[in-house]
Amino acid sequence: MSAPISLVDRRPQADAEQIVASLVPPPQFDGATFDSYRPDPAHPSQSEALERMRELATVWTSPKRGLFKRRAPEVKPGIYLDGGFGVGKTHLLAALWKSMPGPKRFGTFIEYTALVGALGYAETVRALQGSTIVCIDEFELDDPGDTMVMTRLLGELVANGTKLAATSNTPPNALGEGRFAAADFLREIQAIADRFQIMRIDGDDYRHRDVSGHAPVTDDDAIAGELERIGGTVALDDFDALIAHLSHVHPSRYVGLVDGVRALGLRGVRVLTDQNDALRLVALVDRLYDAQVALRASGVSLDRVFSDEMLGGGYRKKYLRAISRLHALAGEG
After folding, report:
1. What is the pTM of this model?
2. For residues 247-267, b (16+ Cβ closer than 10 Å) or e, as one string?
3. What is the distance, to the nearest Å, from the Cα of residue 156 to the centroid of all Cα atoms in its chain?
4. CATH, range 31-201
5. Four-way CATH pick for 208-330: 1.10.10.60, 3.40.640.10, 3.40.50.150, 3.40.50.300
6. How far apart are CA 276 and CA 199, in angstroms?
7. CA distances, 91 to each of 25, 135, 154 (Å)
8. In this predicted structure, what is the pLDDT of residue 139?
9. Are 330 and 305 spatial neighbours (Cβ–Cβ below 8 Å)?
10. What is the pLDDT of residues 172-203, one digit of tens each?
11. Can the peptide bond before residue 73 be classed as cis, meaning omega within 30 degrees of 0?
């Protein structure tokens, strides 16, 4: 096997055309369909969300009725899935996207804001206009500026006939009980508030990971051997060096950091004390999870990388999702 590469040595770049072309579901959802979604019988809201998404796929792709035919019940042009991590929101979002005719777009909130940054607002509107559907995974309300730009963008798309589908990902503690409050989201998108149906999906993490447990820890001397056993293109980095590198790469380009990597080894994992570092790591974990990159790490167990203070703060929901994904990736390969 060739020597491991280093993510720190990568300087990913992406132009606007590449970002637009990449607005499709991650490869791990290639097999995501309505039929392959398995609702948990203990949580009826999952079956309800599945049936509603099926209905929308039918209604949104049906020809418009003639002038003298019976008028169908009004269906809002947007659906918003709100729920905890690991309940299948992204699976349902990808299934809906697949059921719609093109042109269509699927991306995370941060990918759309990156597109605005790369193209400018007016050009972004032109690039997305004409889409039958725009799917937004992990909608975030962390940055008021980004939120208002997206609010305006979504309003223009809906006005021109584009359907919208989104999943929630927002700081929970200020919204009560660790859950996203629909009213808070609707206030942020006043112009199109009445066009969204909000659906809550309850349930347990389908990965069945106990977030109070601990991800495996590998000795420094054994990481290289573990990576060799996994095979393919692998990377090996010091944790602190990688965290520092992330501050110099826009999160929209993190996908380029992990492109083609089968496994990543991290030496000297420690508890993070800076919130910005922690949020950047969350963004990287999301891209690692999308690409199903196996993880091997020494130092502190990966599930302990976020401090107790962080886990009790406004971004608790994000950190718990990242821990769940870190557990899953630590068992990959």
Report:
1. 0.75
2. eebebbbbbbbbeebbbbbbb
3. 23
4. 3.40.50.300
5. 3.40.50.300
6. 31
7. 9, 12, 22
8. 79
9. no
10. 333 333 334 445 555 555 555 566 788 888 88
11. no
State which H helix or E strand residue 48 sits in. Answer: helix 44-61
Res 183: pLDDT: 53
One DSSP character per residue, 205-254 reads -TT---TTS------HHHHHHHHHHH-SSEEEEEHHHHHHHHTTS-GGGH
3-state secondary structure of 49: helix
Note whether 31-201 and 208-330 share their fold: yes
For residues 196 and 189, the answer to whether their CB atoms sit within 8 Å is: yes
* pLDDT greater than 60 at residue 107: yes
Q: HSE (CB half, 13 Å, CA atoms) of 31?
A: 4
Task: Compute the half-sphere exposure of residue 89: CA atoms within 13 Å on the CB side of its CA.
Answer: 28
Would you state the pLDDT for residue 251?
82
Which amino acid, residue 73? P
Residue type, 15: D
Q: Provide the edge-to-edge strand list for the sheet that holds 263-269.
A: 234-238, 263-269, 294-299
pLDDT tens, residue by residue, 74-100: 678 889 888 877 788 999 999 999 999
Return the domain boundaries, the chain.
Answer: 31-201, 208-330
DSSP 102: S
Name the E strands within the chain: 78-83, 104-108, 133-139, 163-168, 196-201, 234-238, 263-269, 294-299
The predicted-structure confidence for 205-234, as pLDDT tens digits, reads as follows: 665 544 456 788 889 899 999 999 999 999
